[in-house]
Amino acid sequence: MKVLLALAIVMLMVSVGMSLQLRELIANWRSLTWGQWSRLLLATFIIPATFALLLAHVFSLSLPNTAALFMLGATPGAPLLTRNLARRGFDMQLAASYQVWSGALTPVMIPIMLFAAAKLYDRTVWIPPRILAGQILIKQFLPLAAGMLLMHLAPGFSKKAQQGMNILGNLLLTVIIVALLWKMGPELRKTSPKIVAATFLLLVVSIAVMHVLMSADRIRVRTLAVSNANRHVGLVLLLMGRFKGTHNVLPVLASYALLVAIMLVVAPRIFRPQKMAAQATA
Q1: What span, in angstroms and rounded, lies between the C-alpha atoms of 136 and 140?
Q2: Which domains are seen in the chain, by residue range?
Q3: CA torsion angle for 174, 180, 183, 185 (degrees, to 10)?
Q4: Exposed / middle / buried, residue 24 (Cβ in 10 Å: 0-12, 13-18, 19+)
Q5: 33: helix, coil or strand?
Q6: 85 and 96 in contact (C-beta within 8 Å)?
């Protein structure tokens, strides 16, 4: 199952890379001031993770669930901004720029934030940055670069293969998620309303904080907001399984994954390109 999941993510990242341009990625980075970079850092890493600890306290979550919720708040960068969203008024280039930036900072930020948060509970937890860097490099950066290189070297083939690869990757990912949900059925039935409420509020805050801190045009803000809500459930699951086990944290991770899936279905229906909106009201 882990191999199939990795394959699906790699296929999607290659497909995304085929539609990207390096100059536009760099232009998105250069367009931000130091003040905007600072606010983006707060909105991506600091505020969601801090709010997750607050939610865990308010809802009196167990320590394993608190750890899972905190890790969700501290781990951005899931490759889930699909081409369907890009056609509905979202900026795919900006989403990719944001994903590369957040992925590059993840091996730095997560060990520091997790170490500091653990001290609040009189514990010492340290994740070696090389583990995070390796996961991000293999499953995100290299496939993304491969897709961009393929488009540069073989644009005709890439344009034909891109849609099929995207469809196959999404289909495979859907099958895996359904299989995992079926397997986790007993765990999901144990999910309390408190966990669902906490994960929902974390998702809402991840969206809202971008609207509050990142003043920009509507497309940029909504792209950053949806991208920020895509916390990296897969990476959190990997880390929790490596260091603490996953049995007690599956309800938190499954709840957030389901909420994100619903968001990605609903968002394209809410946000439409201006031309489509104008035709609908004509």
Answers
A1: 5
A2: 2-274 (1.20.1530.20)
A3: -80
A4: middle
A5: coil
A6: no
First-last CA distance in the chain: 49
In whole angstroms, what is the distance from residue 258 CA to residue 263 CA? 9
Report phi then psi at 192, rounded to 5: -85, 155
Give tens-digit pLDDT for 156-197.
888 778 777 777 776 776 676 667 667 766 666 667 889 999
Separation CA 83–CA 80 (nearest Å): 9
Nearest C-alpha neighbor of 53 from the set 196, 201, 230, 247: 201
- What would you report as the CA-atom Rg of the chain, rounded to the nearest whole angstrom? 19
Residue for token pair 């590059």: 104
Is the model's pLDDT at 140 over the cut of 50?
Answer: yes
CA distance 3 to 166: 18
Is the pTM higher than 0.90?
A: no
How many whole angstroms from its chain centre is CA 44? 10
pLDDT in tens, 4-59: 767 777 877 787 788 777 787 788 888 888 888 999 999 999 999 999 999 999 99
Which amino acid, one-letter code, is at 241? G
Going by C-alpha positions, the residue among 201, 182, 167 that lies closest to residue 254 is 182
